[in-house]
Amino acid sequence: MANVTLVVCGGIAAYKACEVMRGLQKAGCDVRVAMTQDATRFVGEATFRALSHHEVVTSLYGMHETAIPHVEAADFADLVLVVPATANVMAKLACGIADDAATATILAAHSDVLVAPAMNVNMWRNPATQANVALLRERGIRFVMPASGELACGYVGEGKLAPVEDIVAAALDLLGKAEGVGDAEGKGTGEKDAALAGKNIVVTAGPTHEAIDPVRYIANASTGKMGYAIAREAACRGAHVTLVSGPTALEAPEDVRRVDVVSAAQMHEAALAAFEGADAAICAAAVADYTPKAPADHKLKKTAERLDRIELVETADILRDLSARKGGRVVVGFAAETDDLLAHARQKIARKGCDLIVANDVSRADSTFGSDTDRVAFVYPDRVEQMETLPLERVAAELLDRLGTLLGEVR
Q1: What proportions of the chain, in percent to the nearest 5, are helix, strand and coil?
Q2: What does each C-alpha distance from 278 to 144, 239, 240, 246, 403 come to in angstroms?
Q3: Quick one: angle between helices 318-325 and 264-275, nearest 10?
Q4: N or C: the chain end with fewer CB closer than 10 Å?
Q5: Which of 164, 92, 169, 20 has the alpha carbon at shortest distance from 33?
Q6: Which residues of the chain have pLDDT under 70?
Q7: Which part of the chain has CATH 3.40.50.10300?
Q8: Which residue spans of the chain are classified as CATH 3.40.50.1950?
Q9: What is the pLDDT of residues 82-112, one digit of tens each?
Q10: Angle, vertex CA 32, rays to CA 30 and CA 33, nearest 5
Q11: Which stretch of DSSP H or E encloses residue 301?
């Protein structure tokens, strides 16, 4: 059983720390809690005591179990996890200040420290905060970077606490507890990867919209989550990433160049152009196989122009055309199937000529479009590696581990 000391700071996202704790406990972790005094104004000490079944460290003094609670909490931990990390606490850590139980626990830590910041967008963007984050990363502290979106203060932008499942997945990855991990050297925590650092990688993501008329289109249920997770993880590993994205509601990952497209034809053009200077391509997008032959230039009225038949033509095959141009480079495709998953994936890799197919059964609730998990199989020309159900971030990490191996083989 892995031990986690959860440090909770005083921000509106403090209540999310309860959900993080439950996620870790479900994975078999023993979790103890240290809190700043400000954190107790958002979530009561009694809540964490009840959830953890341990005394909560809120002061350097007066605990029944030990006279040195911050050292005890640090010694207990295989991982110290800070959720949410405020700008103030990160500034203290950068300066080595330990003036309360929470910061003293972090300073006394001799295990990995994982920090999940959350704050107002302007506080996050402030040069002082960014300098503190950079300094802490140089010292080996890991981060689950904040998301963009509508904040509790009413602003919109970066600073929103990362999704609970992302924080739990990153913590479990550091603890080596994620199910289905191929080997102990798997990445997935934003660490630089010698196999990918400096490489140029093209990732396609999301659906395409094929116009019937100016207001109607043919599409599918893809959300783009998988492709965006891959792009984010590749950038964290030091790759230069071009993300060719169909229409989605997702924010572009940090340090990723996003090229927005709508149709399959536009994605084909953008992907081939980006691949000219790339080392690898990962085709995670769910591209429409067919498009209307003659889309109308005006909204069709059902009273005069009934839509009882639409003539379709095949779209250009992005995966096949990239594979035909790859030479010594690596191309990875995806296969979303509802039946005979492995048989269809084997046929696809032979037909397209790519190096690897990531096959997932979208008829499963834990592996369908829009899910935060996937149960994939990595299908090579000569073998199959079946994974268990994993968070999308872990699937991305596993895929990029394999991409690094493939890039090494074609040097």
Answers
A1: 35, 25, 40
A2: 28, 11, 9, 20, 13
A3: 20
A4: C
A5: 20
A6: 64, 177-193, 410-411
A7: 200-409
A8: 3-175
A9: 999 999 999 999 999 999 999 999 999 999 9
A10: 150
A11: none
Contact between 83 and 50 (Cβ < 8 Å): no
Annotated catalytic residue, options 18, 95, 153, 236: 153
Residue 352, annotated as binding a ligand: yes
Q: Domain 3-175: which topology? A: Rossmann fold (3.40.50)
Q: What pLDDT is stored for residue 251 in this prediction? A: 85
The contacts of residue 377 (CB under 8 Å, 6+ apart) are 341, 342, 345, 358, 359, 360, 384, 385, 386, 387
Tokens of 20: 């993080």
Residue 225 marked in a binding site: no
Instruction: Specify the pTM.
Output: 0.58
**What is the enclosing helix (H) or strand (E) of 134?**
helix 127-138
Cβ-count burial of 221 within 10 angstroms (0-12 exposed, 13-18 middle, 19+ buried)?
A: exposed
SS3 390: strand
Give the separation between CA 395 and CA 404, rounded to whole angstroms. Answer: 14
Token pair listed for 216: 């109607």
**Residue 143, beta-bridge partner list:** 115
Active-site residue flag, 153: yes
Burial class for 123, CB neighbours closer than 10 Å (0-12, 13-18, 19+): middle
- Owner of token pair 């997008």: 285
Give residue 214's identity as a one-letter amino acid code: P
Q: Say what the pLDDT of residue 411 is.
A: 56
Q: Which CATH number fits domain 200-409: 3.40.50.10300, 2.40.50.140, 3.40.50.12780, 3.40.1190.20?
A: 3.40.50.10300
One-letter amino acid identity for 353? G
Both structure tokens of 168: 């739990």
Burial environment of residue 60 by CB neighbours within 10 A (0 to 12, 13 to 18, 19 or more): middle
265: amino acid identity, one letter:
A
